[in-house]
Design brief:
single chain, 407 residues, alpha/beta, Rossmann fold, Beta Polymerase, domain 2, 2 domains, 7-stranded mixed sheet, 13 helices, 14 strands
């Protein structure tokens, strides 16, 4: 086994590819002296619904535009050319690389690694390089590392919570274990990449203002030109109108007597509620509803309600908000109980529930005459009038919590 592999496989939806992807690739290439990075866009991934997918051909063309001119970077269409579901274990077998490549994963994808098809064979064919993603924590994957090492029969070498905290804080930038007898390595890397996600990019491209992205370069110029030329990720007029945080038309005095969807909207700078809701969606929060009760609510102008899978998921989401807002000078108040939690930003209050808590408290029933907005998988808002409202699991149309990307 060579000291450092020459090749890394970087898979993902790339929907679209953005500067966060490219920044990670550059950092990994430099730090690990990798001569080739193979970008493998997903065709039909088994663990992830591709929100707002313009199609694999467009995603592949954007990928080629983004990596053009980067020495050693290649776009591989092996998965998008398949008619069925793509699995990492099959891709590794079909690429036919000499030696063992790095398989580059984000911490969120690695968290579900043991649920992938034939993880043992993947470990026999590749080394894992797990990089941090903004808003995620290495502390969350401590149990996954332990389970993975148990699979390899290496119970005494797992990641400790103390080391995970050092990685999360930046005091440690690399944690690695090498098992020569089974030719396997695991590297955990604290990456210095911008806080950009494809969900956020799609929102901006469809007309949503996101203050966190205003001063950032989010797309290569060539990719932006391609998107404009092909008219990708464009939201229709109805979706633009039904956007929490900012009304797109004037409401007449006659309309105010009824329950028009836009009557209860109160302007906040830069569509803050919409931006926060999409931030939750990107952190895999499900069933996201946004309400703007205005004067009907004594403690906030806007309420965001969402569901988390468990307490660990909830804590990770709250930590992500803490990293984004508190560290840039916008602290918030927070409280949490066994099945509920809230984050109070003043004008906006976010309520996160486990599913049982969502059904028990039914906060939306406190404002029966207020319209709400349901956030779809692709980051668009769908207006729900008072007469059309149902609680989750009571017959309405809602989001399920998306599972992590497999590669």
């Amino acid at each position: 086994m060579s000291i450092l592999p020459e090749v890394a496989i970087y898979g993902g939806a790339f929907n679209p590819i953005h500067e966060g992807h490219l920044s990670l690739a550059r950092e990994i290439q430099n730090r690990f002296r990798i001569s080739r990075i193979l970008f493998v866009p997903a065709g039909r991934p088994p663990h992830k619904f591709l929100a707002g997918d313009p199609g694999p051909d467009h995603r592949f063309e954007m990928l080629k535009e983004a990596i053009a001119g980067h020495q050693g970077w290649e776009a591989i269409p092996i998965e998008i050319e398949k008619s069925g579901v793509s699995y990492t274990v099959d891709t590794l077998q079909e690429i036919h690389l000499p030696g063992r490549p790095w398989l580059l994963l984000g911490t969120d994808a690695f968290e579900g690694f043991l649920s992938w098809k034939d993880p043992t064979t993947i470990l026999a064919r590749a080394d894992l390089l797990v990089a941090s993603r903004p808003g995620t924590s290495f502390l969350e994957i401590v149990p996954v590392v332990s389970a993975l090492f148990s699979l390899l029969g290496k119970n005494g070498s797992a990641l400790t919570p103390e080391d995970a905290c050092l990685l999360d804080s930046g005091e440690m930038s690399l944690w690695m274990r090498i098992f020569h007898e089974c030719s396997f390595r695991l590297a955990l890397v604290r990456a210095d990449t911008p806080d950009i996600s494809s969900t956020m990019v799609r929102g901006v491209l469809s007309g949503v203002k996101d203050p966190s992205l205003e001063k950032k370069k989010i797309l290569p110029a060539s990719v932006k030109s391609y998107i404009v030329e092909k008219e990708l990720f464009v939201k229709d007029d109805l979706s633009k109108e039904a956007m929490p945080g900012k009304s797109s038309r004037t409401v007449s005095s006659g309309e105010k007597s009824g329950h028009d969807p836009m009557v209860n909207m109160i302007d906040l700078p830069e569509d803050v509620p919409a931006s926060m809701a999409r931030f939750l969606l990107d952190r895999k929060v499900g069933n996201i509803w946004v309400m703007s009760p205005g004067a009907e609510c004594s403690y906030a102008d806007h309420l965001i309600i969402g569901e988390v899978e468990n307490e660990r998921h909830r804590d990770a989401v709250m930590d992500a908000f803490d990293q984004r807002f508190t560290k840039r000078g916008e602290p918030f108040l927070s409280e949490k109980g066994p099945i509920w939690s809230l984050m109070d930003f003043g004008d906006v209050v976010i309520h996160l529930f486990l599913s049982a808590g969502r059904r028990l408290y039914r906060l939306e029933d406190l404002f029966p005459t207020v319209s709400l907005w349901v956030l779809s998988h692709d980051g668009h808002f769908e207006v729900r009038k008072p007469e059309d409202r149902h609680a989750p699991n009571d017959g309405g149309t809602y989001l399920s919590i998306p599972e992590p990307n497999r590669l």
